[in-house]
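Office hours follow-up: a student asked to see two folded examples consecutively, so here they are.
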Amino acid sequence: MLVLSRRPGDKIVFPDLDILVEILQSTGKNVRVGIDAPSDVAVLRHELTRTDEHRREASPRRKSPDNHRLRNKLNTARLALCLLEKQMEAGLPDAAKLTLARALEEFAAAANELQPAEDRHEQAAKLPRLRALLVEDDANESELLAGILRMSGIVVDTAGDGWQALDYLAHHERPDVVLLDMRMPRFDGPSTISAIRQNPELQGLKVYAVSGSTPDEVGLPMGPGGVDRWFSKPLDPGRLVREMKHELDMPHASALAT
């Protein structure tokens, strides 16, 4: 314990904690003390420390972001932008579109790291629980699109073809929407649509096509008996998220949806 003799006007500084203590007045056995501390540092009389313990627990000090993880996410985004540039120079717009989506996902994750942990937890608790089943046979495309949707506050499960999608729908909680590719091996999009529409337990299930083909090319009707919405590839992820949430009456949860 440090013991000091101080007179009114004298100050004591704790530089590592950014706290300043000033002797304001000394009268008889009483000493008036002023304490200047950061807003996230609790200052209590000793006799209140036990009874106010719950207050300190309810107001934790904010932690700085994880700089290592933040640098990694920014580096990944930078690499994605470099790859994007080379893909555009090579005349690969479809690949560049996916790479751009990956870069945006990493930038969004980096921005999330800059939020205080308690704010991130509070925000996560408020995110809408829109659930989607993404059916896509291209593993890279499925992973990237699923990542974007999850960063937008959507719970996503994936299937590699129509057979896997129907098995999922038979054994899991019904999703709010199915995002369905059309050209897939084993069991393609039109076959999957037909099976879904013939199943009374799946009546009214929203199905959005995400395809490089057109409705006429695959012979599918638009509307409740066929495909509810059609999103053409190369895909605009922001538009997909916006219109999903608008049609399903969900609030926007990410900059990607603006």
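And the second, which I mentioned at the end of office hours:
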Amino acid sequence: MHSPSSLRSRDCAGPARGPRDSAKRLAISFTVVLVALSLAGVASPSPRLLKGIDDNAQTLNGNPDAVFAELHDLRTQIVRIDLNWGGPQGVAGGFPTVRPTDPNDGQYNWSLYDRAVLYARQYNIAVLFSIVSTPSWANGDNPPNVAPTSSQSLRDFAYAAATRYSGAFRRPSDGVLLPAVTHWLAWNEPNNPVYLTPQYDGTTIVSGRAYAAICNAVVAGVKGTLIKGEKVACGVTAPRGNNNPSTARPSVSPLAFLRAMKQAGAHGFDAYAHHPYYGDPSETPTTTPDARTAVTFGNLKTLENEVTRLYGRLPIWITEYGYQTNPPDDIFGVSDAQQSAYMRQAFTIAKRDPRIDMLVWFLLRDEPFLSGWQSGLVTVDGQRKPAWATFRALP
């Protein structure tokens, strides 16, 4: 998922680079055959499992008439959308609000997000809002990936957002009743310096402490509205981290980050969110990662066990997942057929796991630059991949 300040980091959030050779490609092809055979006769995911799409370039900045119609045709149940507090598309990106808990404050600009939730309602799709990006006035004129200096400012914004999208708020400009948003995320991949920095102070995981304040602020703000049925997930962790503060780009592995945010007092959230991306194109959704610090689909139980130990049996939300395709990505990509097979396998695993309530695929459409992501169901020029039909067929 992209923040407004940066593109996704491949070494922290997505697959890591690996050698390319004919033996590996042969192994991948053989694995796909085994995957297809293993899935024969397996039941589809249960209705309990929400299937979703995350593609801000399309849902926020694309043609909403076409995009939301396509999401509906895909039988998408939930769409993840960045609700930018700051940054270029920030609701409060300009100046501090006078009445920060009031969604009618004149400094707030909700127009982009109002449009998205209204289109989602038109096509009977739920919205998962991910509150991200600090406005510069709230963090000492720093970039959007630096935490606010006062968590109260974030809490106030979360309260205003949850009030506006409570299902009971009429837009003053035209009297339109805005739909309810009941699923919320606190930030994105805070163990990745692209989205939260700094990660360390010496050897101390300060990102865990900063994120605990972010998580608690979003939880308190959303739940402070006392609207029934709202759920907030925290964590939203990237699958890997180097745990090395001396590197040029330090990051924190998901289990270490989970412990750090717990130690710093993160609490009150309804679910733990994670992004269990593969690390090499030879990995299937059942492959145990080589790095013991990584958490992918293949060892997701390790994360579940640690969440249980620290917070009890909270639901797990997979709020980003996907496989890139080759072509065009000949380093991280798998074939179109593999992408489709791995998608079905991942949803089957999620369906069988009573802890997983949501699986959100990243992306709808490939990004138009190779440094981005090519995990879409549709190519840049609009051609549907086999995964399109696979996603649509999932109940």
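Two things to take away from it. The first helix runs from residue 22 to 39. The beta strands are 50-54, 78-84, 126-132, 183-186, 231-237, 271-274, 316-321, 356-361.
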